[in-house]
Structures are given as structure tokens and as C-alpha cells.
Amino acid sequence: MQAFYWDCPRNENCEFAWWPRVEPELAALRQAGITALWLPPATKAGGAVSMGYDPYDYYDLGEFDQKGGRATWFGTRDQLDSLVSKAHAQGMSLYADLVLNHNNGADEMELNPLTGKQWWYRFKPLSGRFERDWACFHPSSFETFDEMEFAGMPDLCHRNPAVYAALVDHAHWLVEEIGFDGFRFDFVKGFNAWIIRAILEYRYSKPGRPFLYKPFGVGENWDSEQAIERWLDTESEMSDNPVSAFDFPLRYTLQGLCDSPDFDLRRLNGAGLAARRPARAVTFVDNHDLLRLNDPDHTGIIHDKMMAYAYILTHEGYPCVFWMDWFNFGLARPGQPTGIAALSSLHEQFAGGSSRVLYASSDLYIMQRSGFGAQPGLVIVINNRRDRWTGTAVTTRWPNITLTPQAWCSAIDTGTPSPKRTDADGRADLWAPPRGYAVYVPQ
């Protein structure tokens, strides 16, 4: 779960106390099948009220009185430590949002002698760690080329050995001392991939884990499928712990599924990075950049969003659920077959093995997961017609067995799909409600 959204402390009256807002939800989330939380940038930013994407002091998690206060907008170091401890007690992993491209909130202006320009380059954080001057940013004596700038903030020069060492040490600190289990890398277009490889290839020491612990990593490369794949190839060359990527191409396909009534369901077959590199694709429906409250220009999915969640929580890839959809928009619906919670639970129990599309037309899509290990597999049926239930006979991998519907939803029809018995060849007639879906599992 992405356990935050834009301006969440303000919108939920939890300013400087978001960590205590998340902590009480841990047990219920874990019970519903959520196994990891992606947290917002936890380090002290350039201002007191900030989502953390403008880092100032990488070693201040809410301990030092600077930049407007002691706590970050999300809380204090003690509150974060409590959240980490309670999440691990529930068997959940925690992923830190790392902003490695740019900084903000410098204490003094400095002259860059290479450009003759005065800019905010001098950082003197109260933690006393990773102080910076002009040589830590682009352009410097170590490197003049910069991938991309972000919002006019000075860009870190990773080829400066002091910067490289400081960022790698920061990642070690987050894993080995704070307790994070992996990283989400922000704005990876802005810097070379080798710094990510260095962070992910390091072998970390964590209590209760093997000594050679390898953290999870996912990059935000907001681009086309081809560009994301090229980035994955570059980052993962000669790496024994390759990074994953958010599946933006699939997300935009799913937006078409939800918001376009005439969407052709055959486009779901082979869609996105997940179809080509399922082990490296983090699939999602919306995030903090796409969907913001009180923003008329937001590009979040508007209609029939449960169809998108049904897709990512049954197909291959590492699905990421959005906090706003679960809590603010009430789509979790615990205890009901029509919400994200039911799909999340089915994902953990049944969604194993390879995917096989059993049927695809403009209005009907049926996909089977073959099962792997303790996960026996499932079948999802998606119906794009608005006027009626639709289904067809397909041959599954399970002969002489009952396929039981355990999750379904339609904004048009509240009917309940019926169990189906397969014949000796594994064939059964599987249906879904109008503009909706049904997920069947073998029992």
C-alpha cells in the first residue's frame, strides 16, 4: 500500500502526526493481505509543511529543531520508530521514499566558480551529517552533464565521491538503524542508474534477517513502456538485485478500461510492463501525483475504479494499493466481496503462477492464473457491457472441480455470481455482472 497521498496530514487533521495516523491501521491491513507499506519521504525537508520531496537534512527524521520545527510534517523520529516496530510485528515490510536528485532549503548562497553563479548551495544541517557546498551539485568539477532538473532545486552530483558515499551511507542507515526494508526511488529520470544499483547491491545486516539481506527497490520512471524497459536494462546490467519499476503504461490502459465506456477489452491482453516483465513490474491504479483532492486538473481514474483493482490484484506483477482508494473513497469494503480488501486477500491466497488469457473480445475478458505452491490459482472475468451479465464457456486447468466466486463488483447490478462446476476437461461457463468483474477460485 502507498500509505499516504498529497497533503494527507492537512486533509486528515494530522499535521506533524501522520505516523500515528497510520499505526492503528496496521493489524487490519495485514489481515486483509497488505504485506508492505510505502511511506512518504521521512527526512526533514526545506520547509516545515512539506511532503518531503525537497530534502534538506537526510539524517533528521523529526529530531532536530530546524526548518520550522522539530517534527517533519509526518511526525517525530520516535513516532516513526514506533510505526516501524509495529509494522514489523505484523510481518509487514516498509519501503522508504528516497529523493536523491535534488535538495532544498540551503542555509547560504555560494558562488559556483565554474559558472560564476551565486545559488543556494551551502547546507549546514543540525544533524551534522552530509554537509554540502557548491561542489556537491551540478555542474561541478566531477561532472558537468545533468540528466534533468526539478523545480529549480540544485541537483546533487553523484560522481562527487563525498556525495556518493553520503547517499549510500544514508541508505545503509535507513535499513540497518531505522529498519526500512526497501526503497522507492523518486524521479529516476534525473540521475544515472548506477547509484541505485550501488544501493541495492549492498548486503545489509538486519536483526532476524540473513546477514546478506537485499532490499527491495522500485523506481519512478514516468515514461513509455520502451523507455522504462531501457532504464531497467541499464540499471540491472550485471546486478544481482535488479530494481523494479512502476507500470505507468498499464495504469493508463486501466484508466481507459474504467473511464471509457467503449474500451476494447482485447487491449488488456499483454498490456503494460507486467505482461513482458512481471517480476519487475509494480502495478498500480492511482498515486499521489495522479490524484489530489481539490485539484480540478487531477488525472485520477473517475469511474468504475474497482475494475482496475480487480485487474492488478489478479494478474502478475507486484500490485500497489492507494491509501485514498482504501480509506478516503471507501473502496476497501472489509467483509464484503465487492471491495479492494476481498481482492487483496484473494491475491495473497490464490494469485500464483503464470497468466493465460482464456477468452478476449471487445466486451468480455477471461484470464486464468495457473497456481504455484500454496496458491492454487484463480480465474477473473471482466464484462464491459452495460446492459447485461455476460459470460462464455472456457477450458480451465481444473477438471471436475467447483469454481467459487469470492470477489465481484458492478456499479450497475448488485446480483451475485453463481458457483460453476467444471467438466472432465476443465470446461465451465463463467460470467460477470455488467461493467464489472467476478473472480472464481478452485475449491
Describe what you observe in this structure.
This protein has 443 residues and is α/β, with parallel strands linked by helices. It has two domains: 8-246, Alpha-Beta Barrel (TIM Barrel); 355-442, Immunoglobulin-like. 24% of the residues lie in helices and 21% in strands. The chain contains twelve helices and 19 strands. The protein has helices at residues 8-11, 18-22, 26-31, 77-89, 161-178, 194-201, 225-236, 248-259, 272-276, 305-312, 323-328, 340-350, and strands at residues 36-38, 44-45, 55-57, 93-98, 108-112, 117-122, 182-185, 216-219, 244-246, 281-284, 318-320, 355-360, 364-369, 378-383, 390-395, 402-410, 420-421, 427-432, 436-442. The protein has a seven-stranded parallel beta sheet. A six-stranded antiparallel beta sheet has the order 12-13-14-19-16-17. The chain is elongated, with a radius of gyration of 23 Å. The protein starts with 7 loop residues before the first helix and ends with a strand.
Could you give a short description of this structure?
With 443 residues, the chain is α/β, with parallel strands linked by helices. 24% of the residues lie in helices and 21% in strands. The strands form 5 sheets. Strands 1-4-7-8-9-10-11 form a 7-stranded parallel β-sheet. Strands 12-13-14-19-16-17 form a 6-stranded antiparallel β-sheet. A two-stranded antiparallel sheet has the order 2-3.
